[in-house]
Amino acid sequence: MHVTSSIHDGASAPAREPSLLDRYLDVRQTSMRLCSPLSIEDHSLQSMPDASPAKWHLAHTTWFFETFLLTPNLHGHQSAHPAFRNLFNSYYEAIGDRPLRSLRHTLSRPSLAEVHSYRQLVDEAMAEMLRSRPAPAIADLVQLGINHEQQHQELIVTDVKYGLWTNPLRPAYREPGGKTRTIGSASTMQWRRFNGGLCFIGSDGQGFSFDNEGPRHQVYLTPFRLASRLVTNGEYLEFMNSDAYRKPELWLSEGWDCIHANHWNAPLYWEQRNGEWWHYTMEGMQPIERDAPVCHVSYFEADAFARWAGARLATEFEWEVAAQRCAIEGNLLDSDALQPRPAASPDGLTQMFGDVWEWTGSAYLGYPGFKPAAGAVGEYNGKFMCNQMVLRGGSCATPRSHIRATYRNFFPPHARWQFMGIRLANGN
Ligand SMILES: [Fe+2]
User: Fold this and answer.
1) What's 76-114 look like in SS3?
2) d(CA 53, CA 32)
3) What residues flank ion ligand 1 with Cβ within 5 A?
4) Is the pLDDT confidence value at 6 over 60?
5) How far does residue 12's CA lie from ligand 1's centre (Å)?
């Protein structure tokens, strides 16, 4: 049986909300579409421990549905191979052992074709499970699996980008002439003022959210200002040209050590050719566009830039309060640009969703009263609440249906391979 979204189309009204099965199948197909430009060899690329092969992402997201939904709930379900339970486990101690993350590229078997068959087998079983209305606890887990796969879709893009860039040939993910080229020019940055006060933070429980988005609670914010748009490549070039990478007064101690240990003097993917800066994109090497948002900078670089600019990064609470007023629209995965674009308008507060994840000045911690979910899925977020900073807003690789004002992403301060950028904040 070939599973398509037509499974549930039978007697339904045309304007109905997509069913859970529709959403499941749509997300599963998006993962396959993102991998479609890749060769079989590309699917096994892993050029650093943090970045996993595309084939592994396709298998691991399938493993998630099988392990947490099918095995415990679908009577008689038989896996494609019993060893997959360990082979494609990422970090769930309660599930059991797993191969070293840094060695995921060594899994030449199962083949890509076998991983595709594994996906189809699980899709058919999931379709069987979801044909009748699932119990609320099952539906919640399916939602978690869908959102988990969407997170891995972003990782497919960023990990493939890093893997292809590592090749001295700088091969493109897709041919130039697609949608990567940016349009428009950045407007003058302006400050948008917010009154602060006692503000609600976190998910109100309407719709899906990860456990780390709650409990909803109140924080007190003094008045603050946010930049109307993201920091641009042109502005970051000014920072670089001011010798900022050689001025210790701009850097956190750990950041100063980090830029020296890694010989950083520009964002990731930037290269100088004949005196001009170029950067690697999903469509290969392109000249830097001054008006596009700077991207692929670490927290250390974002923090130093803000200090150089006489400003600071927003706290995650300031960002969330500002974002509560913004529609969830922007240059997200759905636009298929796969590259941040200049702010489209000088009005209001722009680029809050999409383009680049915005580093905040907030450490990734549990909200007051936070309790991870019971069981193995409780390992999803809570155990990473140490030595990471929060990023907000999604990027050009984030699916639109995946992002919201309360969403908390997190990475260590040295990470640069995600689409990460900067928005300035200030006091009143
Ligand atoms: Fe995962």
Assistant:
1) CCCCCCCCHHHHCCCCCCCCCCCCCHHHHHHCCCCCHHH
2) 14
3) 90
4) no
5) 33
Distance CA 92, CA 262 (A): 31
| Ligand 1 midpoint to CA 206 (Å) | 24
CA 151 to ligand 1 centroid distance, Å: 8
At 256-288, the pLDDT tens digits run 999 999 999 999 999 999 999 999 999 999 999
Query: How does pLDDT run across 51-81, given as a tens digit for each residue?
Result: 999 999 999 999 999 999 999 999 999 999 9
The two beta strands, 284-287 and 276-281, are: antiparallel
CA of 14 to the centre of ligand 1 (A): 34
Q: 3-state DSSP call for residue 379?
A: helix
Rg (CA), the chain: 22
C-alpha distances in Å from residue 187, one per residue of 137, 190, 289, 343, 397 = 47, 9, 14, 7, 23
CA of 92 to the centre of ligand 1 (A): 9
State how far the alpha carbon of 61 is from the alpha carbons of 32, 147, 216, in Å: 12, 10, 29
Backbone angles phi, psi at 411, to 5 degrees: -150, 155
Instruction: Say what the pLDDT of residue 253 is.
Output: 98
Determine what percent of the chain falls in helix, strand and coil, rounding each to the nearest 5.
Answer: 40, 15, 50
Which residues lie below 8 Å from residue 159, measured CB to CB, with a gap of 6+?
45, 46, 51, 52, 53, 54, 57, 417
- Say how many Å lie between the CA of residue 146 and the centre of ligand 1: 11
Between the CA of 280 and the centroid of ligand 1 the distance, in Å, is 26
Checking if the pLDDT of 428 tops 70, the result is no
Question: How remote is the CA of residue 360 from the centroid of ligand 1, in Å?
Answer: 23
Cα 311 to ligand 1 centroid, rounded to whole Å: 36
Q: Using CA atoms, how far apart are residues 321 and 197, in angstroms rounded to an integer?
A: 10
- Amino acid code (one letter) for 271: E
Mean pLDDT of the chain: 93
Tell me the CA–centroid distance for residue 331 and ligand 1, in Å: 24
